[in-house]
Fold these 3 entries.
Entry 1:
Amino acid sequence: MPKGSPELTQARHDEIVNACAKLYETMGFKEITIKEIANFTSFTRPSIYNYFQTKEEIFLALFKQEYEMWTKEIDELEPSGAGDARLEFSSQIAHTLERRERLLKLLSTNMNEMELNSRPENLVAFKTAYGASVDAVGNCLQRFCPDMPEQDREDFVFSFFPLVYGIYPYAVVSDEQKEAMEKAGVHFRYMSIYEIACLGARKLLGV
């Protein structure tokens, strides 16, 4: 890590991650290189290696950032007290995912590759952010459904997260993919991110 103020170091770190996020809007994980990322920053490619050793570490930092933003949003959810609390929870948690398309896209990539090509300290930081999101969903469910047994809440959380991992490929489908499925005779029902997440949560909660 280069010498300098913590503020400058964090600013450089954030600039790199934000450049990666910008590229990821129109490019895939495999297409993006450190050279491409450097072109969207104010410093050179060699300078990036002062902060990240691999492209995967940059993506893992972006992943961590996305989890932190999602966790913050979940922590702010509160029940209205009107209507079925489980239905309301399902709808609200689905809306948070609807606003986190980048997180869902990252979840649909090769996470294993990112983790294997990152230093242990970066992997721990990422897992900490992921763990906070798991806790946030469980705590949110407790706020909405305080009478739900702890085991039922835990069962929901550890069933809901695998479902979340698969949302993006089903909700974000290109015209070419749709046409291919039609030609292959595959029955497909288009659903939005919100619809898939809400339906999944409701099924898991039995409502």
Note: Residues 1-52 form a domain with the Arc Repressor Mutant, subunit A fold (CATH 1.10.10).
Entry 2:
Amino acid sequence: MQAEIDSLLNQAKAGMDKALARLSDELNNVRTGKASPQMVNGVMVDYYGTMTPISQVANVGTADARTITIQPWEKSLIPAIEKSIFEANLGLTPQNDGEMVRLIVPPLTEDRRKDMVKRTKALGEDAKVAIRNFRQKAMDGIKKSVKNGYPEDAGKKMEHNAQEMTNAFGKRVDEILGAKEKEIMKV
């Protein structure tokens, strides 16, 4: 029975790790006023009838702090890339010179920065909810094991361990959000 409970806690920890990784991925897509290749990660390009991620049809990089460059492997893809960027509604206007597509990232206004902070806090709260859901699954499994004969004091200790793990992950979410908020508010 101890192995089952250890497995429950390990599954909860793995799920919490995934929630943190997802939060980090989503925060990479939040604009901070600096150009980042991750800003176009979600853009899909029509590549001969197949919707393909932009990173699989072009080299995506940054020329400077405000410019994203997209150099397609085939020049014929430039119009499809431009169209995909418009459709992705990134708030960026593509400029093409016949060789590559450039995206100029405008500086953020104070109001826009505050909106971005609100969005990151919402993403953080979603991550915390996911973490608490994994804790709840572990707690339910521990309580079920106690009903099936696992010692009650050991069960309480395992519930405490699950809560401590949840608190630690919640603190990490707060740290990640704090760093992102500083990055967003930095002019």
Note: The beta strands are 44-47, 50-53, 58-64, 67-72, 94-96, 101-104.
Entry 3:
Amino acid sequence: MKRIILFSIMLISFAGLRAQKFGYVDTEYILKKVPAYKSAQDQLDKLSAQYQKEVESKYKAVDDLFKKYQSEKVLLTEDMRQKRENEIVTREKEVKELQKTYFSPEGSLAKKREELLKPVQDKVYTAIKDIASDGSYATIFDVANNPGMIYNNPRFDLSDKVLEKMGI
């Protein structure tokens, strides 16, 4: 009798598992197909290059100031040397602070990235969520961010459906 009950419980459990549907998407593939994402990425690349150029020019100015100091060091009084060294250190700190302001995780580039890319990513997420609801999918994996998936049957790839849902 116990065997029959145990077998029944296992059968019901496996029946419930078979009813689950799984799919996957490749968000990297999807985002490459979205024109708004490409445009936002281009803007970010230009802004990053602009920031990098500004920071590099300021570092070069500090380096030039240091080289000038090195060449004139023997001619300067102790007080003048100290002033120049302090100026070099101060300017270097300013450049490092500027670099941090632009490139840190809370910097202007990260904020701009959030501003430009979040709406596109939200649109992709909404499309994935709608497809999951409409298709009764229990789980949808992202193979772009999950290298742990060893095999993906293309039959369950929902990436093109997401693009279709987004009108792309």
Note: The first strand starts at residue 22 and ends at 25.
